[in-house]
From TrEMBL:
The chain crosses the membrane at residues 32-56, 68-86, 92-113, 133-154, 160-181, 188-205, 217-241. It comes from Nostoc punctiforme (strain ATCC 29133 / PCC 73102). Keywords: Membrane, Plasmid, Transmembrane, Transmembrane helix. InterPro entries: DUF347. The lineage of its organism: Bacteria, Bacillati, Cyanobacteriota, Cyanophyceae, Nostocales. This is Membrane-anchored protein.
Length: 251
């Protein structure tokens, strides 16, 4: 019988670390390309969407989990999801409250369709092209929703980046506590935490990169992006080497 390979990684502490770092890069890289390099949101969106499609093509071609390919897709999805929200808010004038509500509804629809078709939303069941397609669409909208939610708290409600990051950290801790101590559904806990890590990473990215007059620490988008990218690359190399190690055999 042919073994069915999973197309997504195991959910470990390393997974969550890279995920938060990737969301931070999504925020700072989008700001760097559209603002610092003055490419604008439209041009940056077209470029990142094109790169995301290329990365997805390679990911589907592999038909299995490969750390480098998978996390490249996550980073480009993070940047693209950020740009979707930024364009709606900054170019089309859609409010952050509206984008938060709309993306919440869209994400619920994606999850509903996914479950109706496949009867599962679990990470360990991403072993067909159809399930992986639902998976990446859901992830794209978690990034768009997370961007809207993070900006809503930090900017529209004027809580600031540090306080917003603290709020999302507490919410993630509550979800983790619910999973470990009260045994709430693992799939539900995963997706709630996945959504919350996006505004957490965005708040951390803005806190580090934005100038002091805007409530940040003034590290800059280039420095912040390069710092977090370096950590991501190091962790992905570690995962790639670990994946290539032969499984231990019983004596």
């Amino acid at each position: 019988m042919k073994k069915v390979l999973n197309r997504a990684p195991e959910v470990t502490s390393t997974f969550w670390i890279i995920k938060v770092l990737a969301t931070t890069v999504g925020e700072t890289a989008a700001d760097y390309l559209s603002v610092t390099l003055n490419l604008g949101l439209s041009v940056t969106s077209y470029i990142m969407s094109g790169l995301l499609l290329i990365a997805l093509w390679n990911q589907f071609r592999l038909k299995r989990y490969v750390p480098v390919s998978y996390w490249i897709v996550v980073v480009f999805t993070s940047i693209t999801g950020t740009l979707i929200t930024d364009r709606l808010v900054d170019e089309l004038g859609v409010s952050l409250i509206t984008t938060t509500i709309v993306f919440s509804v869209v994400l619920l629809v994606v999850f509903a369709l996914w479950y109706l078709k496949e009867k599962t939303l679990a990470m360990h069941s991403i072993n067909t092209a159809k399930r992986e397609l639902f998976y990446w669409v859901a992830i794209l909208f978690t990034f768009a929703l997370g961007t809207a939610t993070g900006d809503l708290l930090a900017e529209a409600l004027k809580l600031g980046y540090a306080q917003s990051a603290l709020i999302f950290s507490v919410l993630i801790a509550i979800v983790a506590g619910g999973y470990y101590y009260f045994r709430i559904n693992a799939v539900l806990a995963f997706w709630i935490a996945y959504i919350l890590t996006r505004p957490l990473g965005a708040s951390v990215g803005d806190l580090l990169s934005q100038p002091a007059k805007n409530g940040g620490l003034g590290l800059g988008t280039v420095e912040t992006s390069m710092l977090f990218l370096s950590i991501i690359i190091s962790l992905v190399i570690y995962l790639s080497l670990k994946q290539k190690q032969p499984a231990p055999t019983a004596d």
